[in-house]
Amino acid sequence: MGKSRLVGPVRIVGVGLLGTSVGLGLRGRQIETILADASPTNLRIAIDYGAGRAAAPGDLPQLIVVCVPPDVTAEIVARELEAYPGAIVTDVASVKLAPLAELRERGADISRYIGSHPLAGREKGGPLSGRADLFIGRPWVVAAHDAISYQQAGAIDDLILDLGAILVEMTPEEHDLGVALVSHVPQVISTLMARRLTGAAHSSLNLAGQGLRDVTRVAASDPDLWVQILGANAKPVRDVLLAYRDDLDRFIDALEDPAAPGAQRKVAEELAGGNAGVARLPGKHGQDRRFSSMVVMVNDQPGQIARLLNDIGELNVNLEDLRLEHSPGAQIGLAEISVLPEAVTRLTEELAARGWRIAG
């Protein structure tokens, strides 16, 4: 691990998933971290977890990271700017225009504030969900504005790089439009899909595979937090959802009479459009690269996944992704592994030689 760019100390306000993860990541680089939270219990857990120490009189943080819900972000940022006039302040809220506008209305010193947003997280929140490696390889947006200089914002860049994230510069407007498309609308669609399951027969749910689990994964997120996020970024989200409604209407119309002239062509065009969209998603290291998948059958016994990963490593094949699926009532799991296309044939042969059963 190289030398830290930050000097510290860094004050973290709010020790949920993101705040605790920031603290754990910085402590791993020997940076002094100061923790604060409205909940004494959460604060104690985060401290015991090793994310930092409690605040003390005379603290002079270099940088303050505000990790609180969106509806109080501007209020807490304004308070921190006033309490620590020598510090640079950032927040990690998933909307950037609203906090900046409110800070301007409050007359806060935004020459020492710049919003940021790590696109990293988990469905479970709270300090116990924190991970020191949460941000590694993940985009972290810095939403620049004219009132802060590049030199003053440098500490925030240092924070991002120290935590292993990828720094992305955007305006607040660009950020909020972007997350509406790639984060906020997917949350809504995932939620609506999951709601379809509440009244479904158990016989139907037993048929669920990895595709449904992928689509509904984020539906397990905290509703209270998402009410705030969607409310703060309502217009961009609504605009995307309106376009999505038009997409659904076209699909519904095409399926009304699948035998009608042109109906199957319309369905095929919609499906092909989805293929084109997926192909544009950045792959590993931010490159538009498609990987090949293979499915390995894994006995439902302790240590089998670890053995599979070890065998792949010994064969000097880089694992790009891993997904696990269990069949109801079967004592076997399916491990879908993604690798570079040129590695598939050799990996299939080598794993088979080591006794693994290749399902596809």
From TrEMBL:
Pfam family, one: PDH_C
Cross-referenced Gene3D superfamilies: 6-phosphogluconate dehydrogenase C-terminal like domain, NAD(P)-binding Rossmann-like Domain
Bilayer-crossing regions: none
InterPro entries hit by this protein: 6-PGluconate_DH-like_C_sf, ACT-like_dom_sf, NAD(P)-bd_dom_sf, PDH_C, PDH_N, Preph/Arog_dehydrog, Prephen_DH
Keyword annotations: Amino-acid biosynthesis, Aromatic amino acid biosynthesis, Oxidoreductase
GO MF annotation list: NAD+ binding; prephenate dehydrogenase (NAD+) activity; prephenate dehydrogenase (NADP+) activity
Thylakoid is among the record's keywords: no
An example Gene Ontology biological process: tyrosine biosynthetic process
PROSITE patterns for the chain: PDH_ADH
Pathway it works in: Amino-acid biosynthesis
Top-level taxonomic group: Bacteria
Record-listed E.C. numbers: 1.3.1.12
Keyword Oxidoreductase: yes
Stated family: Belongs to the prephenate/arogenate dehydrogenase family.
Protein name: Prephenate dehydrogenase
